[in-house]
């Protein structure tokens, strides 16, 4: 059962840990994607801005013009005797432009730029040979097309632009506001709406582009290259970290974690309860076994005494001795009375548990009740050369109680004090008023008990373990009876004890006016 519980908890822990790791990977993937998007967007925006300026410039100062490629196609239609001539040319125009025109803050006089132009024409001639083309009539039809090749121009421009822009300080190429806005929008679309800090680093050195709270923690910082040069290499890195990333990751799976904790707790509670009941039943079984053994021992001695007394009475020499017969009969009566008292204790506890014991209460004087209880045990105490002293310091002692049962309560505590006093019993009884209550303290100087025993001394059948030695007779019912009766009188009973120094029982009861 324990292995099963450990297995279930281990599986739950593994599942939660696996979910956390998966959520971390998902978060990392989203952040990496957002950073790549921001990096590419910033580069594209920068390039587009200056390419648009470049297209709007007046490029009349031609420096050089080369034909990059030429294409000439001749096709003759034998049916119509017509000749079709198609030609296509691509020219590359090179310019030297002032760097100030593009406003990129470089200390250069000019920037090399290329303009790529395409032109094509279609001519149709009738009844001519190719050799006659240049000298004969004009073509029947002639179509001429020309234009700029934007993509080719853009690629040429971007290469030149990247080559020169890498010399520009990074804080002039991008602002903190632009990065924050792009990153916030992209992360928001992915459902990641938490605070972040960012910076751009140049060869692991911080630049001016950074948020106020950014700290470069290697373990929690994500980064991607930004601002590639003409060789597709970058010295700059865009870095971002999230102060609350752990809270975000946990918040996404907190529902599952809470459910797992709840169900695991239920399993643990159920297991603990079952284990507790099992141990409790085992303890009850041990207590019952001890009770039976103690009860057997309690009855064995008086039964043996009664049998011996009866055998003695049967003896012809004794039966005629009236004094001896009376003494033996008195012994039989006392032992019978002792067994009857033990049975009554068991029956009283049983009735108390079933709420069948009729306890009627009347106004009584607690001091008088204590004196009455002392008379029941005084002879036994004096027989052992002991004493019982009273210190009645309470001015008010009227309580609502059942005289018989509460007398039994005091007698039981006094009897315990005698039984657990190896030497001559020394017992002191104190009373005092505390507010609207009266305290009764019964102190002895006997063997005392351990702290563990003091906590359980009022449990039914409980007796402190003394091995197989039965030097103190009883079966753990007297103090259980005391506790039930005191509580039925709206009172409270407790004990303070130290091994080898004795015990003090305290009873607290409400006073009546």
UniProtKB/TrEMBL annotation:
Pfam families assigned: HATPase_c, HisKA
Coiled coil: none
Keyword vocabulary terms for this entry: Kinase, Membrane, Phosphoprotein, Transferase, Transmembrane, Transmembrane helix
Family annotation (SMART domains): HATPase_c, HisKA
EC code(s) of this entry: 2.7.13.3
Regions that span the bilayer: 248-276
Matching InterPro entries: HATPase_C_sf (IPR036890), HATPase_dom (IPR003594), His_kinase_dom (IPR005467), HisK_dim/P_dom (IPR003661), HisK_dim/P_sf (IPR036097), Sig_transdc_His_kin-like_C (IPR004358)
Domain Histidine kinase: 294-513
Reaction(s) catalysed (UniProt annotation): ATP + protein L-histidine = ADP + protein N-phospho-L-histidine
CDD domains: HisKA
GO MF annotations, alphabetized: kinase activity
Database matches in SUPFAM superfamilies: ATPase domain of HSP90 chaperone/DNA topoisomerase II/histidine kinase, Homodimeric domain of signal transducing histidine kinase
Official protein name in the record: histidine kinase
């Amino acid at each position: 059962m324990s292995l099963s519980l450990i297995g279930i908890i281990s599986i739950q822990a593994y599942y939660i840990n696996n979910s956390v790791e998966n959520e971390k990977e998902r978060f990392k993937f989203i952040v990496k994607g957002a950073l790549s998007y921001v990096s590419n967007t910033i580069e594209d925006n920068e390039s587009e801005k200056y390419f648009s300026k470049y297209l709007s410039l007046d490029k009349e100062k031609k420096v050089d013009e080369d034909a990059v490629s030429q294409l000439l196609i001749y096709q003759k239609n034998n049916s119509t005797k017509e000749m079709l001539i198609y030609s296509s040319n691509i020219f590359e125009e090179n310019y030297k432009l002032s760097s100030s025109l593009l406003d990129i803050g470089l200390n250069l006089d000019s920037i090399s730029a290329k303009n790529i132009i395409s032109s094509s024409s279609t001519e149709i001639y009738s009844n001519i040979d190719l050799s006659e083309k240049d000298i004969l009539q004009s073509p029947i039809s002639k179509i001429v097309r020309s234009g700029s090749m934007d993509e080719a121009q853009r690629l040429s421009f971007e290469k030149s632009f990247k080559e020169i822009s890498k010399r520009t300080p990074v804080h002039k190429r991008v602002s903190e506001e632009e990065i924050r806005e792009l990153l916030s929008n992209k992360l928001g679309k992915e459902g990641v709406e938490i605070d972040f800090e960012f910076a751009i680093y140049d060869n692991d050195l911080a630049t001016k582009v950074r948020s106020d709270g950014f700290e470069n923690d290697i373990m929690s910082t994500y980064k991607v290259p930004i601002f590639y040069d003409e060789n597709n290499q970058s010295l700059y890195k865009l870095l971002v970290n999230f102060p609350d990333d752990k809270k975000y990751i946990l918040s996404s799976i907190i529902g599952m974690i809470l459910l797992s904790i709840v169900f695991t707790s239920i399993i643990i509670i159920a297991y603990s309860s079952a284990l507790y009941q099992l141990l409790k039943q085992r303890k009850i079984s041990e207590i019952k076994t001890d009770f039976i053994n103690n009860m057997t021992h309690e009855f064995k001695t008086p039964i043996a005494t009664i049998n011996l007394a009866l055998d003695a009475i049967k003896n012809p020499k004794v039966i005629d001795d009236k004094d001896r017969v009376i003494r033996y009969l008195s012994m039989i009566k006392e032992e019978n009375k002792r067994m009857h008292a033990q049975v009554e204790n068991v029956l009283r506890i049983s009735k108390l548990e079933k709420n069948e014991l009729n306890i009627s209460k009347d106004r009584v004087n607690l001091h008088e009740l204590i004196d009455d209880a002392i008379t029941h045990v005084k002879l036994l105490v004096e027989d052992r050369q002991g004493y019982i002293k009273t210190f009645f310091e309470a001015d008010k002692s009227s309580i609502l109680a059942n005289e018989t049962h509460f007398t039994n309560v005091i007698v039981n505590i006094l009897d315990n004090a005698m039984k657990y006093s190896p030497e001559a019993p020394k017992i002191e009884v104190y009373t005092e008023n505390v507010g609207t209550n009266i305290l009764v303290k019964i102190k002895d100087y006997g063997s005392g008990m351990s702290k563990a025993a003091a906590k359980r001394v009022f449990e039914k059948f409980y007796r402190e373990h003394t091995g197989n030695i039965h030097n103190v007779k009883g079966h753990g019912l007297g103090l259980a009876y005391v506790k039930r009766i005191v509580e039925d009188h709206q009172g409270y009973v407790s004990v303070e004890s130290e091994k080898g120094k004795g015990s003090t029982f305290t009873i607290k009861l409400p006073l009546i006016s």
